[in-house]
Model the fold of this input.
Amino acid sequence: MTVPRLPPYAMDGAQTNELTQWPLVDRESIEKITQWLTAQPHLPQIQEHEIAQFLHANYGNEEATQRTIENYYTLRTNYRDCFTDRDVFNDAMQTALRIMMFTILPGETKEGYKMVYTRLLTSDASHFNHPQILKFMTMCLDLWVKLEGNAKGHIMLMDMHGMHVGHMTKMNMAAVKKHMFYVQDALPIRLKQLHFINVVPFMNWLMSLVRPLLHKEVEEMINMHVGLGKLHEDIPIECLPNEVGGTAGSVQELHDSFKEKLYANSEWFKATESQNLVDETKRPPKPKKFMFGLFG
Done:
C-alpha cells in the first residue's frame, strides 16, 4: 500500500523523504513501521524520513518506535493548550522570550552528543507564567529535534541562576506533568544527560515534587552542579556560555541567535498545529477482557 504524501511542514518541514540524513536506520524497519501505521487508522500516515527519525531515537527498536509515535501524535492532539497558539510573535511568547532563554549550544561532546542550554533572563518572578514558559520550552525542544534530531545523543543543561522560591510558588504541576511526559515518552531524541547548573538551596524540595514524574533511567541521568569543575569535565568549554566559564559567547548572544531561529521557523510552528493529528474517532478499541484474564 502506498503511503500518501503530506504537505509541507511535516515534523522536519520537508516535502520529500530525506533518508540520507538517517544512514544508520535499517530500511526493513522503516517498511515494517510503515505497514504498522496502515493498521492504525487513528494515526497520521507520516513520511518515511519521519519514521526514520523515530527509529533513530529508539536505536532501531521497532516496538519502542511504535510507542513513541503513538505518544508523540496523541499528546500533540490532546494537549491542545500546549500545542496551539504557537505564534512566536504573540504577546505570551514574547513575554516568555524576555523571561527565559533557550539555545542550542555549538559543537558537541567527545561522544558526539548535541546540547541545549536554558536559563532565566531575569530573576523577577512577577510575570512568570509557568504553563506559558513550559509551552515556550516545548516549542524550543521541537525546533531542536527539527534541526538536530540526527545525533548520537542529546544533553539538556538547565542553569538555575536567578531562580528563587518566588518562582516555585507559581509552579504548575499539571503543566509539569504534561511537559515531562512529552519529553520522556514522546520526543524523538536520544536523551543521555541532564545537568542542573548553579543548583539552588531548595533543590531537594523541587526534586521531591518532580521525582515521582521521572522514569528511573532519566533520574539516573541527572547531574547536579554547585560549582563548575565537574561540568567542565563533562562538557567542552568551547561549547558553554561565557557565564558558566565557557567560550561560546554570552548568554544574551546565544539567546539572540536562537531567537532568530525561532522567528525563521514561525510559519512551521503555525502549520504543525493542525497537521499530523490523531483522529480519536478512528482509534481501534482495546481488546475486551474476559474471564481468567483472556482476551477475545
Notes: The chain has 13 helices and five strands. The beta strands are 100-104, 113-120, 153-159, 191-197, 222-225.
